Amino acid sequence: RYLRSASFPWDVVSVLPTNLLYLHLGPAVPAVRANRFLRVPRLFEAFDRRETRTAHPYAFRIAKLMLYVFVTIHWNGCLYFALSTYLGLGADDWVYPNASRPGFARPLRQYLHSFYISTLILTTVGDTPEPQREEEFLFMTAGFLLAVLGFATIMGSMSSVIANMNAADAAFYPDHGPVQQYLQAHGVGGRLLRRVAGWHQHLRAHRKLVGEQAVLRHLPSRLRAEVAASVHLPALRKVSLFQSCERGVLEALVLKLRPQVFSPGEFVCRTGDVGREMYFIREGRLAVVAADGVTRLAILGEGLYFGEISLINIRGNRSGNRRTANIQSIGYSDLFCLSKEDLTEVLAEFPSARALMEAKGREILLRMDKLDVHAEAAAVAAAEEAEQRVQALEVALEELQTRVARLLAQLESSAFKLALRIGRLESRAQQRRLARDRAPARDQGPTRLQGPDGGRGPGGR
């Protein structure tokens, strides 16, 4: 495919060994390597591909723009030295000084001086030597126009890259400005305002994202699952509940988990609240606080989870779907949140994980003395009785379906027989009508009157 492409001939020409012409022309003719410029489109293609593969695309774009700037200054400096050589080195103050002056004959000095003059011209910062000849005026004018058009475009592109970087940060991390303005507009400040600012600052300092679903929404579902699993799977495997689960359970969970960050002293849930989510501790520590809000009964660390009791319908649970403990964050805590609807969907697909979670919840309720064993047994008996009733109803329904099928078959047979009888009767009736129509035609024949010579006449008998 590459051999048949349109770029192949140009690539071949660009790599021809034109350097061999130096053997005949000498090293003072760099134009023999001009064919290398034919590789410029491939260079741009390489830049575009690398930009999509690098982990720091904005830094790569800035570096690419800076490369364009240095290359432009370099080429302009080369043209300046070539023009100085054409006009004569040291002919005036604008061109490069004569090589006879001490130190100016070294190639490094020549290049640095030309690069410096080119930088002054293209950046239009002034302090450039005043041109004396027409060629010098034309070179300065072309340099100024290039600076106005080219460098303005490059600097505008760099400003756009920086703006895109800020926009990307705003997409990853929520902006604290509107929240602060909202609080200030309603006269709320002080400690609450500092907590909001500290929360936003913690997200940026530790690079924690809270809108992962919005960032990954354009990916296909399978690829999105793999990306989420590669990011969160190590933390999710720390949870004791999922250490023995298959990978399918984890991949189903990572697509539904929503990261949340809680500030120091903030309550994740309180006793009596309606439970709508369960939480997995990714980083940080949380305390189980007594009813007084001060006494710490236990400390929860990384890999633990809580809140599943109020989401799973455990028989005999006295608290129902209410929270059974006060959970307070110690420092900043990074949690995974799983809603009740998402948890029900995942557990419906993986019954083993549901059984394990119910067993863990039942154990916790027994330890907290919030599991009514008799009510659980009654619920189990009621469930078994309901199951038996359902089975009896299914059997009765099957019998009714069989009877209805038989009645339908009999009805269809009777209808078929009735249709046959009606058809025979209609056929007989039609035959009788035809017979009656033919009988008068046979009885009525033609009559002729006979004359006096013979036969019957009007007066003969």
UniProtKB/TrEMBL annotation:
<keyword id="KW-0406">Ion transport</keyword>
<dbReference type="GO" id="GO:0017071">
    <property type="term" value="C:intracellular cyclic nucleotide activated cation channel complex"/>
</dbReference>
<dbReference type="GO" id="GO:0005223">
    <property type="term" value="F:intracellularly cGMP-activated cation channel activity"/>
</dbReference>
<keyword id="KW-0407">Ion channel</keyword>
<feature type="transmembrane region" description="Helical">
    <location>
        <begin position="137"/>
        <end position="158"/>
    </location>
</feature>
<feature type="region of interest" description="Disordered">
    <location>
        <begin position="431"/>
        <end position="461"/>
    </location>
</feature>
<dbReference type="GO" id="GO:0044877">
    <property type="term" value="F:protein-containing complex binding"/>
</dbReference>
<feature type="compositionally biased region" description="Basic and acidic residues">
    <location>
        <begin position="431"/>
        <end position="441"/>
    </location>
</feature>
<dbReference type="InterPro" id="IPR032406">
    <property type="entry name" value="CLZ_dom"/>
</dbReference>
<dbReference type="GO" id="GO:0030553">
    <property type="term" value="F:cGMP binding"/>
</dbReference>
<dbReference type="InterPro" id="IPR000595">
    <property type="entry name" value="cNMP-bd_dom"/>
</dbReference>
<keyword id="KW-0175">Coiled coil</keyword>
<dbReference type="Pfam" id="PF00520">
    <property type="entry name" value="Ion_trans"/>
</dbReference>
<dbReference type="GO" id="GO:0005222">
    <property type="term" value="F:intracellularly cAMP-activated cation channel activity"/>
</dbReference>
<feature type="domain" description="Cyclic nucleotide-binding">
    <location>
        <begin position="241"/>
        <end position="347"/>
    </location>
</feature>
<dbReference type="InterPro" id="IPR014710">
    <property type="entry name" value="RmlC-like_jellyroll"/>
</dbReference>
<feature type="coiled-coil region">
    <location>
        <begin position="376"/>
        <end position="410"/>
    </location>
</feature>
<feature type="transmembrane region" description="Helical">
    <location>
        <begin position="65"/>
        <end position="88"/>
    </location>
</feature>
<feature type="compositionally biased region" description="Gly residues">
    <location>
        <begin position="452"/>
        <end position="461"/>
    </location>
</feature>
<keyword id="KW-0812">Transmembrane</keyword>
<dbReference type="InterPro" id="IPR018490">
    <property type="entry name" value="cNMP-bd_dom_sf"/>
</dbReference>
<dbReference type="InterPro" id="IPR005821">
    <property type="entry name" value="Ion_trans_dom"/>
</dbReference>
<keyword id="KW-1071">Ligand-gated ion channel</keyword>
<dbReference type="InterPro" id="IPR018488">
    <property type="entry name" value="cNMP-bd_CS"/>
</dbReference>
<dbReference type="Pfam" id="PF00027">
    <property type="entry name" value="cNMP_binding"/>
</dbReference>
<keyword id="KW-0472">Membrane</keyword>
<dbReference type="Pfam" id="PF16526">
    <property type="entry name" value="CLZ"/>
</dbReference>
<keyword id="KW-1133">Transmembrane helix</keyword>
<keyword id="KW-0813">Transport</keyword>
<protein>
    <recommendedName>
        <fullName>Cyclic nucleotide-binding domain-containing protein</fullName>
    </recommendedName>
</protein>
<dbReference type="InterPro" id="IPR050866">
    <property type="entry name" value="CNG_cation_channel"/>
</dbReference>
<dbReference type="GO" id="GO:0005886">
    <property type="term" value="C:plasma membrane"/>
</dbReference>
